Amino acid sequence: MKTPMLQSRIRMVSRQVLCGAAVAVLSMVASATRAEAQVRVGGHIGFVLPLVTRVGGQTTNLADNFSMAFPVGITVKGSGRMAFDMELVPSVQNSPRVVALTVHPGLVWGVGHGFAVGGRAAFDVNSSQLGFTPLVNKSWPIKSEGSFFKAYFVEAVLPVRFNRPVGGPNTDPVTFGMHFGLGF
């Protein structure tokens, strides 16, 4: 059995250790720097005009068969120059009347002075077509305080697709288009 004096001494030492630990933890918390966010999330909306297309040995332009696409994208950017961008691109073609959806994930690198280059994979939903899209982008900041949109941009795109329909001829369309939009 412990004596009351020994029990008192143990309690006093325990309190001193706990108080010392508490002071150490509080001083570490007080001296810690505030963590800065390393990842930013943004996005963009816009429209694409396919200006010239080469497919199956024929060249067509926008006037031959009007079509337009409406990309909507989510961008995740870290602290470096590279960003991951996921676009969903609904498109409308006049003749034959077709509405399509392309899932368009890609990587974009900022190269300075508002320019960026990148590439996207392309997966056309409910289609035998897939491919890739290289791009060059130029953006300009919107300098309005508190504006939802942060920049406007123009982007040159070169969609390359590989079409392998069941029972049909293989075609590999290549298109030059311009994408205009707003970033947020």
CATH class of the largest domain: Mainly Beta
The total of beta strands comes to 11
Compute the gyration radius: what is it? Answer: 29 Å
Structural category is alpha+beta
Distance between the termini: 72 Å
Q: Order of strands in the sheet with the most strands?
A: 1-4-5-6-7-8-9-11
Poorly predicted spans: none
Account of the protein in words:
The chain is α+β, with helices and mostly antiparallel strands. It folds into two domains: 1-32; 40-183, Beta Barrel (Porin). The protein contains one helix and eleven strands. The chain has an eight-stranded antiparallel barrel with strand order 1-4-5-6-7-8-9-11. The longest helix is centred in the first third of the chain and has 28 residues, at 4-31. It is elongated, with a radius of gyration of 29 Å. The protein starts with a helix and ends with a strand. The model has no long low-confidence stretch (mean pLDDT 88).
Helix and strand topology:
Elements lengths: L3 H28 L8 E16 L2 E4 L5 E3 L2 E6 L4 E12 L4 E15 L2 E10 L4 E13 L9 E7 L2 E4 L10 E10 L1
Antiparallel strand pairs: 1-2, 1-4, 1-11, 3-5, 4-5, 5-6, 6-7, 7-8, 8-9, 8-10, 9-11
List keywords for this structure.
184 residues; alpha+beta; Porin; 54% strand; elongated
Quick rundown:
The chain is an alpha+beta fold and 184 residues long. Helix content is 15%, strand content 54%.
